[in-house]
Structures are given as C-alpha cells and as structure tokens.
Design a protein that fits this description.
Strand content of chain A: under 5%
Structural class of chain B: mainly alpha
Structural class of chain A: mainly alpha
Radius of gyration of chain A: 19 Å
Order of helices and strands of chain A: HHHEHHHHHHH
Distance between the termini of chain A: 41 Å
Oligomer: heterodimer
Number of domains of chain A: 2
Chain lengths: 203, 181
C-alpha cells in the first residue's frame, strides 16, 4: 500500500517537473519522457515513441495526451484498470499544475511580464535550448527506428540501416515538406498511412 | 447558465476538437471563445497564445488558464484548464487499455513500426520550424548545439539542467555582453 502511494506521489512529482521545465509546448515534453523512462523504468523509450504517435492522432493537446498515456501505463503496474485510470489522472494533474500556478501569477502583471528585459533575455537562451532538447530526442527516435541499434553499436555499415524505414521516412518528408497538395494535411493522415505501410511491409 | 459549467464544457469542446495541440487549437479557440462566447478579444487571444508559448508547460493549457482567469479569477482558470484536459483523460484511458490488450499481435507491432518512422519525420519537421525562430545568431546556435549534443550523449543529466543553464546563459549574454546594440 505504502509502495503504491509512493508510486503515485513520484508520478505526480515527475510530471510536475516536466510541466515546470518543458518550454515550448507538447513536443518539448519528449526529452523529459525519455529521461523519465531511463530514470524510473516505468516504461521504455519505445513506449515513448508509440505515445508520440497516439498523442498526435487523438483529440486533445499532444503533451496532455502523452502524460495521460504514461500515467495510465505506470498506474497499471500497481494493479488493475482503476489504478491505471488514477495514474492517468495523477500524471495529467502533475503536468498542468505548474502551468496553472505560473500563468495565474503572470496574469496578475501581464504587461510588465512581456516587456521585462530579464524575462526576454532568459527566453533568448531558452528557445534554442528547448529546440536542442527536442532535436536530441528526435535523433534518438531516428537511431532506434531507422537503424538496428544493437548492430549500429558495433560500427556503421549499410547493413545496420532499416531500409524500409528510410524509404518510408524520405517519402513522408517529401510529402510533408515539398508537395503542395499534401504538406498542409493533418499529421493524423500520415500516421494512419504509415501504420498501413508498416503492416503491409512487416516493419 | 452558470459560468463555471459553461467554462468547463466549452474548453472540453476545444479539447475534443484539437488534434496535436499548439497552433491547431488557435482557429478553434477563435471560434468558440472569441466569436461564440466573447470571453476574450482576438488581440487578447493572440497575446495569451504568445505568452503560452514562451512560458513553461503545454501551450493549450496555458491559454485555457489565461482565459478562465480573465473571466472568473483563479477558480475560472482552474476550471477552464480541467475542462480542456478532461476529454484527453477519457479518450486516452480507453485507448491505452485497448492498445495494451492488443499489443502482442504481430500486425499491431508492424503498424507501430510504421508509425514510429512517421514520428521521426514529425519531430524533424517540428525541430526545423522551432529552429528558424529560436536560432537567430551565433550565441543561440552555440546554445542549440551544446544542448542537443549534451542531452543526446549525457543521458544521465536531466533536461532541467540544460533548461536552467540556458536561461542563465540568455540573461548573461543579453545583459552583461558587449552592449553594441
């Protein structure tokens, strides 16, 4: 019982930390989720990659969806569905609590916040840092999904590339960046198409 | 109608209609909050959104807290935010149960194999978009590279460390640096 309570307290704490330090929206929570996977063992990095897709293809802000999903998986390790749902609630509340506190404080001196030179200069450093964190997370998604990571550790050769994955990735990059008719389409359509390709090619 | 249930339900509706979050939410907020309810003006919404982007946390959550707070103070901010996340809680809890049940099936794994490739491209696209706004000169380029490489190789360090260091670096660079501008 005590262990279960501690698990949920830690879950709240981990997501509180994520909500407080992830600057720049949903994608900015990904590095924190990877770090959580490494530090707690509640779920794996592969789980995080799946969560990104689920979070992006379901209604609701992606950051909130990922938190709910992680909370659900973590809670389910403590027992059945009721614990899983409790985990989903705890993780989500943990994520949004710092936002609520910070925004309520800022709302009381809105004008001076926007014009404050220290706030402004902190964000001058924060924006590239947040982008860097997401880029590093993206790189590990690429390494684990477009290469055979175990073989890659032995050294680079053409055999360590997941060729089916590369072809799909390049096709998706062209469709989302270069083709006028498709680049404005919602990401959910590309995710669904990738699922179909994954099934057909046995990825 | 009492304003609190109205706040909760309106933001729940915004939550249901938003896929992906962030910018996807702006047109829906414009319709529901500005045009239908008159809870904020177009300019206020843009301001909240801009601040929501550069403050910690999920942009959609930050914006909901702002609008709720503006209309009904602290309780309003909390209720609007809870309304926004409520659909996610219900939908994801249902879906996570289903996914866990079927995750041993080969075709489900193949589908996720394809989906994760798509995730690579989605993250790449997000990084490129953020990069254009964030990396504007040599110091920001150095911060970007240092954080990207640092967090990729030093996985034992929490992202919190990089975030705090970058905020301090930003303040120092802008305020102590050569005052040529």
């Amino acid at each position: 019982m005590t262990e279960t309570i501690l698990l949920f307290l830690r879950l709240f704490y981990e997501f509180f930390k994520t909500g407080l330090f992830a600057v720049g929206g949903g994608m900015a929570t990904i590095p924190f989720l990877y770090n959580m996977a490494d530090a707690t063992g509640w779920f794996t990095r592969i789980d995080v990659d799946n969560m990104i897709a689920v979070g992006e293809s379901t209604p609701g802000p992606i950051g909130v969806n990922m938190a709910t999903y992680v909370g659900y998986i973590t809670g389910s390790t403590a027992g059945g569905t009721p614990f899983a749902v409790l985990g989903a609630v705890v993780a989500t509340l943990g994520l949004i609590t710092p936002s609520i506190i910070v925004i309520l404080i800022i709302a009381s001196f809105l004008k001076s916040f926007r014009d404050n030179r220290y706030v402004d200069s902190a964000f001058y450093g924060l924006r590239p840092a947040s982008t860097g964190l997401i880029a590093a997370a993206g790189l590990s998604v690429v390494v684990s999904n477009l290469f055979y990571a175990d073989a890659l550790a032995q050294g680079f050769s053409l055999a360590v590339c997941n060729w089916k994955g590369w072809i799909l990735a390049i096709a998706l990059w062209i469709l989302t960046n270069k083709v006028k008719q498709t680049k404005k389409l919602h990401p959910i359509l590309f995710i669904l198409a990738s699922a179909v390709v994954g099934i057909l090619l046995g990825m | 109608m009492n304003i609190y249930p109205d706040l909760f339900l309106t933001f729940a509706k915004v939550g249901v209609m938003t896929f992906g979050g962030g910018y996807a939410m702006l047109p829906i907020l414009q319709r529901e909050v500005v045009e239908n309810k008159g809870w904020a003006t177009e300019e206020e919404l843009t301001d909240y959104f801009a601040i929501g982007q550069c403050t910690p946390g999920i942009i959609a959550v930050n914006t909901a807290t702002f609008i709720g707070q503006k209309n009904r103070g602290v309780p309003g901010g909390i209720i609007a935010t809870l309304g926004l996340v409520f659909p996610s809680l219900v939908i994801i809890s249902l879906l996570a149960g289903v996914i866990t049940t079927f995750s041993h099936l080969a075709w489900v794994n193949h589908a996720f194999g394809g989906i994760r490739v798509c995730v690579c491209v989605l993250i790449l696209n997000a990084v490129v978009k953020l990069f254009k706004k964030a990396v504007i000169d040599a110091p920001t380029m150095i911060i970007f590279l240092a954080v990207a490489l640092g967090s990729y190789f030093l996985t034992f360090l929490s992202p919190v460390v990089f975030v705090l260091a970058a905020a301090i670096a930003g303040i120092l660079l802008k305020n102590l640096g050569v005052k040529k501008s």
